[in-house]
Design a protein that fits this description.
The complex is a heterodimer of chains A (about 100) and B (about 180). Chain A has helices spanning about 5-10, 15-25, 25-30, 35-45, 50-55, 60-70, 70-80, 85-90. In chain A, helix 1 (about 5-10) crosses helix 6. Chain A has about 100 residues and is mainly α. The N and C termini of chain A lie far apart (about 35 Å). Chain B has about 180 residues and is mainly alpha-helical. Helices cover about 35% and strands about 10% of the residues of chain B. Chain B is built from six helices and five strands. Chain B has a three-stranded mixed β-sheet, with helices on one face. In chain B, helix 1 packs across helix 3 (about 110-125). Chain B is globular. The two termini of chain B are about 25 Å apart. Classes of the chains: A mainly alpha (about 100), B mainly alpha (about 180). The interface of A and B includes residues 52, 67 and 69 of A.
């Protein structure tokens, strides 16, 4: 259950006030959630693949992506170690989407 | 927290994509607003009486379900239903959502899910009213959003899976999570 805290932190980005605080003062938000140094580093670096290995649910990654303006497709490509363009060549349809509200 | 299997007793089921009201963050550099097509689907009707019957019947068959209300459903229900059914201005029939928790291990085995399906049939058939009921299972076939194999598709396996689902579900029910994850 070592990944519970970081998963909870990312899940709470569904609350608008939490999104605003994360964007304005991420270090304060990390501290308030008592994230470990490793967890803060993973989020700062947008280390998508490493977060998966750490135990972060993909559904939390897409919440983070939505808040920082990174599409799901960018995240998929990054997890594979590819550029978006390389990844999209393997798809039947070239689309972008995220869970961000419009 | 929901257990492995959960049934909704809700009367009116909304599309959760309509519940978010905030705007795309100003800092978003790469993705323009409106990239995602928002649905504006009417709410679905639930069927609390059938849901309660299914809950009782499955409990009697040793499936210790949980139950939920006040929970919107996502694309897992609304996307397939929107292409299967006309839905303007309203959906033609109520639904009973039955959710299987497979996101976070430990998750139920294929065999357990198969047995649930068999018990579900008995539950529906024992309902006192003569309803016409159709079961729609939604979910991914080969589908991978995690890690280095994100975007993995295996069309040959998908077709075989659909074939087995129809003609030989018992074979599928013998597969382990590892076998299913490798193939799909």
């Amino acid at each position: 259950m070592k990944a519970y805290r970081i998963n909870k932190f990312l899940h709470e980005l569904i609350v608008p006030a939490n999104r605003a605080r994360f964007l304005e003062a991420p270090e304060d938000a990390f501290a308030q959630a008592a994230l470990s140094d490793e967890e803060r580093d993973l989020i700062r670096r947008r280390a998508w693949r490493e977060m998966i290995h750490y135990g972060v649910s993909f559904f939390m990654l897409e919440k983070l992506g939505a808040v920082i303006g990174t599409s799901n497709l960018h995240i998929y490509a990054a997890m594979r170690g590819e550029t978006l363009e390389e990844f999209q060549k393997s798809r039947n349809a070239q689309i972008l989407y995220s869970t961000a509200p419009r | 927290m929901l257990k492995s299997f959960a049934v909704s007793h809700e009367e009116a089921i909304s599309d959760h994509t309509q519940e978010t009201t905030s705007t795309w963050p100003a800092s978003s550099a790469r993705l323009p607003p409106r990239t995602r097509q928002r649905s504006a689907l009417p709410p679905l009707q639930g069927h609390p009486k059938l849901a309660a019957h299914i809950g009782n019947a499955l409990f009697a068959e040793e499936f210790d379900l949980s139950f939920f209300q006040d929970k919107a459903l996502d694309h897992g229900a609304f996307s397939p239903l929107s292409v299967l059914w006309p839905h303007e201005p309203a959906w033609p029939a109520p639904i009973v959502p039955l959710q299987v928790g497979v996101v976070q291990f430990p998750i139920p085995s294929a065999k357990r899910c198969y047995k649930l399906g068999q018990a579900l049939r008995r539950a529906i058939e024992s309902y006192p009213e003569d309803l016409r009921v159709v079961i729609i299972a939604t979910g991914g076939l080969s589908h991978q959003v995690h890690g280095e194999r994100a975007g993995f598709n295996n069309v040959a396996w998908d077709e075989r899976f659909m074939d087995l689902l129809e003609k030989d579900p018992a074979t599928l029910s013998e597969m382990t999570h590892a076998q299913l994850a490798s193939a799909a």
